[in-house]
Specification:
- There is one protein chain.
- By secondary structure, the protein is mostly helical.
- The chain is globular.
């Protein structure tokens, strides 16, 4: 029924919507409370709090990757590519609104979400998707594709795109491990495909 929580598997905590119960701030040391205050507003941050020494550097990396030479549109495209390649519904849901706000076209979003052909997309969007698909699917980038990415985005942009996708792949792996669910039960990537 609309507005109700979905039925969850027995290993999923009803408050966190994952296999890990929520960490309570009052149970942490003073130093860890400061980290908690910075990271606990996201599911990957809540997962990282199970290892406080990792939580702050992960947050710092993600924060810095949001201000690269690529800009917000390419940042969101890179995040969506990683979410799609790992079938990470929660991560996808968290970045779809950001992609729309950043001006990513619906056509680009659907090409990523439904693994569609790239021929009618803006050239830069299609190139970034090709780059991401090569990294995640082939585990290598051809010299020709590499040269095209560097020509279009520069060496710094190529490196930053790789790190953005890597950061979101890392988050996707952690979220898949704990079977993080969307609060409303939606499955935009693992549900039926159009």
């Amino acid at each position: 029924m609309f507005g109700q929580k979905p039925n969850l598997p027995p290993d999923i905590d009803s408050q966190s919507n994952s296999r890990l119960p929520l960490i309570q701030r009052d149970q942490l040391s003073d130093a860890d409370k400061k980290v908690f205050d910075d990271v606990a507003n996201t599911a990957p941050g809540r997962v990282s709090m199970y290892s406080p020494p990792l939580a702050d550097p992960i947050r710092t990396l993600n924060s810095r990757l949001r201000s690269t030479v690529l800009g917000s549109q390419m940042f969101e495209i890179c995040a969506l590519i990683a979410a799609r390649e790992f079938d990470e519904d929660f991560e996808w849901t968290g970045h779809i609104a950001g992609a729309i706000r950043a001006g990513v076209s619906e056509q680009t979003i659907q090409a990523i979400q439904y693994n569609r052909d790239l021929k009618n997309l803006p050239a830069k969007d299609a190139l970034m998707i090709r780059f991401g698909r090569a990294l995640f699917r082939e585990h290598k980038v051809s010299p020709e594709l590499y040269a095209e990415v560097v020509k279009t985005f520069g060496q710094q942009g190529m490196v930053e795109a790789s790190w953005i996708m890597g950061d979101y792949a890392m988050a996707a792996v952690a979220l898949r491990a704990v079977d993080q669910r969307n609060p409303d039960g939606s499955q935009p990537l693992t549900g039926s495909l159009k």
